[in-house]
Every structure is written in C-alpha cells, then in structure tokens.
Amino acid sequence: MIAIAAVAAVTIGAIGLGVYGVRFARTTSDLFVASRAVTPWFNAAAISGEYLSAASFLGIAGLEMKLGASALWLPIGFTAGYLALLLFVAAPLRRLGSYTIPDFAEARLGARRLRLLAAVLVLAIGGLYLVPQLKGAGLTLREVTGAPYWVGIAVVGLVVALNVALGGMRGITYVQAFQYWVKTFAIVLPACVLLIVLGGLPERAALFGRELPVAPQGGARIVLEQRTPVVFPRAATVRVDGVVVSAGPGARRTLPRGELVVAAGTTLPVGEGIRAQTGARWSRPVAPGGGTASPLFVYSLLIATFLGTMGLPHILARFYTSPDGTAARRTTVRVLGLLGLFYLFPVVYGLLGRVLVPALYVTGQTDSVVLALPEAAWPGLGGELLGALVAAGAVAAFMSTASGLLVSIAGTTSFDLWPGYGVGARLVRFRLAAVAGMAVPAGVALFARHVDISVLVGWAFALAASTFCPLLLLGIWWTRLTAAGAAAGMATGALTATAAIVTGLAGGNGGSALGEGPVDALLAQPAAVTVPLAFAAMFVVSRWTRPPRETDAAMLALHLPDGLGASAMR
User: Do both 438 and 509 map to the same domain?
Assistant: First the structure.
C-alpha cells in the first residue's frame, strides 16, 4: 500500500503540473518550443528529466546485473553525448530558430522531400524509444501492485497522452523538471541507505572472485509464472512444487510452472539468454574475445550513445526552447552536471542485486532489480519505504521521457506531415497526433516484454546516430552538404541500422546472451559500421551534387551571433 501511495502521488503531481501548464498552451510557439523562454537551470532540469528514461533508472542496473561491468559504458556514453552537443550543435541549432528537426532540414537545405524523410525518421526513433518506457511502466506497476503487465502500459500511456495533448512543450517542461528531482532523490537515497545498512558491498567473492551466484542463507523461493527454460552452470538439485529436479553441469532443463525452491549455497540455474559468469569475468569492463565485454561491442556502444544523443529528436527539440544560443550552451553545461550526479548510483543496484536477489537470474527479469532490491536487502518497514520511493522514481522516469518523446512525435506529425494554418487548427492536430502517437508504441510494448529495456534503447540510439547525427554535424559545419547527399546518408544509415537490428532479433540477440563472434557484436549494436557508412554516403553524394543557393544565408543564421544570423536568413 505504501508503494501504491507513492506511485499515485507522483502520478497526481504530474497530472497537476500538466493541468497547470494548459493555461500557457495557446499558441504554436507554446506547443512546440515553450515560447523560447525557458531559463538555463529550468531547461537543464527538464532536459535531464526527459533524458533519464526507464533505461537509466531500471535498465542500466538490470543490464549490469545481467551482463557485468561492460554495461557501465552506457551511462558514460549517455553523458558524454552532451559534450558533443555542447561543442558542435546546441548554439547553432538554436540560432536557426526552427520548431522541429525536419524543419531544420528544410531550412538548411531547401528541400521539402528531405523534410518528409526526416519526419518519418523522427517517428521511427521516437516510437522505438517510447516502447521501453512503456515496458518499464508495465514492469513497475506489476512489481508494486501485482497488476497485469498491460495495466501499467495503459495507465501511463493515458496519463502521458493527456498531459502532452493539453499542455504541449510548455506544460511538459514543468512536469519534466519536477520529475528529474523526484527520480534523482528516489535513486540516491535508497542506494546510500542500503550501503549503510549492509555495511558496504557484501560477498566480494561473488562480485570479483571465482564464485557464481548462489542461493542466499535460508535458500531461495522463486515463483515461476510459466514454463521456464534454464541452464545449470554446476550440478544441483532443486524442487518445483515438491518435484525434485537434478541436473549436471551445463545441463538444460525446462522447469514447470510453480514455486522453485533452491537450498542455501546452491549455485542457481540461469534463465534463457543469460550467461552464468564468475565474479572475475562479470566485473571486467572490457575483455578479450566476444560478447558484451569485447572491445568491438564496447566501441560500437560508445559510438551509438555518444553520437546518438546528438540525434535524438526529443532532446534536440528542447534546445529550441532556449531564449538564444548562449542560453542553449549554458543549459548543456548544467545538464552534464545533473546527469553526472544521477549516473553515480545505478551501479550500486547492479552490484547489490547480483548478491542479494540472484533469483532474478532464473526468471530473466533483471530489469526489475532496482524495484526488488530494497525489501530483499532490508526486510520490514524500512525496505518497504525505500521500495516505495524507488517505485515512485521509476514512474517519474518513464513518464518524463515518454512525455518528451510524445511531444516530438506529435509536433512532427502535426507540423511536418499534416500541414495547415491557423492556431486553432494546429492545436487540434497536435492533440490528435499526441493521442494517436501513443497507440502504436503501446501495442508494440505488449509484445516486447522479454526484450531488455537497455537493448531497445541502444537500438534507438544506433538509429539516431546513423541518421540525424551526420545531418546535424555536416549541415551545421560543412557548406557543401546537399539535399541529395543528406537524403542518401540518412537513408543509408537508417536501412543498415534497421537491417542489423532485425537480423539480430531473428538470430535471438534481442533478449538473449550475445554470441562470441564479431558479427554477433555488430548485430547487437551496429553503430560502429552504420555511422561511418552514413557519413560516407552523405559526403560522396554531396560532392556529386550542387548545394542549394540559400546555403550562405543558412550558414550565417547558424554561426553569426544571436540576432544577426536570423536577420541574414530573412
């Protein structure tokens, strides 16, 4: 009941702030760019609020528990991406004064068809990124209330769609800034308290030595909701509803539905898609060979997250809300600090989860380690209170990011794909697009239950890095870029990244353990190949075609001091 009350409080707070923001959503500028009047500190909190998604709050800790220290490259890439934004994109992008990324593409290169291609990619990236937020909602409400998985998706989808439809960017800014501080407090306080209660990190041999995860003192009782394929890393005997199951090392079994009982000190079997690792292997951030700790996979992941941040439409749209280019840069510096503070703590949950809730290795639900850990580490009222706080933070995480994504989807649909004039008509189109834009990702999320949240987000980053990153970097800094070159580069990046993702899914990399070969690594995270291909295609085709006549005016608008460039563009 405490956790339900905490989740309800955060949800009501978000709705209340959204309703408060409705009175400011009267013009096109209010809907799309919050009238370009958001101050740096406020905007930084809002950007951090929508950037710290379900992948940050739940996924990083879950992926660290599942894969090991190699998963910690994710937050490094997530944060460092803002350094690239600060140096190359933030101020010029704001100076051009567009509403959306497709709007930027047409203003810079003067091609209506390029605007349409960019709009389709915004919808693809936004939809792919929205799915894990809704999956996080389903996992959290199931953990907190015991409700079916689809209930969380329906509830959060409805609340977010309502807030976005009514308040637009202006209303969502208040919600996201509030939610950043909620989720930061919710992840920092429980981590610190649990370390104090436990006296530091327990079971160092399991974390850094030669041990595999074992059932804790008192044994483990795990509810299997369905028939579950597992692998026994070492010989063990377990019981499922009183039926004895014995297996030798490396044996595969399918356990029936029921309560699995594992005696204390027994090495736990691992679910499908999870590789049993000793502490020494699990704690390596980079290791020779294949898998998620291989140098190739790590490099590709860093390319995707570092450059993908630059291409996320919902993040880029927030820079349009700054008053000028200088404010956009100041905002980015503050975002780096706020993200750095948050990302210090998910690692704690992954470390403690490997020792205290190893039962998640059996079910494969490592994404829920942040939610399950407080009560497992501190049974009783203290753990229940911390668990309620964590649940509230998780709700804030996927609500804030889902809100930003839906603003981007609705804005692109109503401004770029559904043209028309008049403030009233645009308001109606925006609100209809917000409702429709939530429906498809919600449907996909129902079938993505067994795909890791961070894997889904990694794909969205790979697609963004392979399409909008080359467009922005070359569009802002290279005068020879042409519309044909931009279209060729974005199409090449989108098609190759999508082909790799689909092939990986067909081969079982979506939620399974990564294979040992370099091809497996690139299918799981293709950015190391797709990003260079996109840049190359954009460069080669641009050299063979003629840049638009408006190039000089557009470059002045991007690079002259605030105000002067806009005058030159006009």
Answer: yes
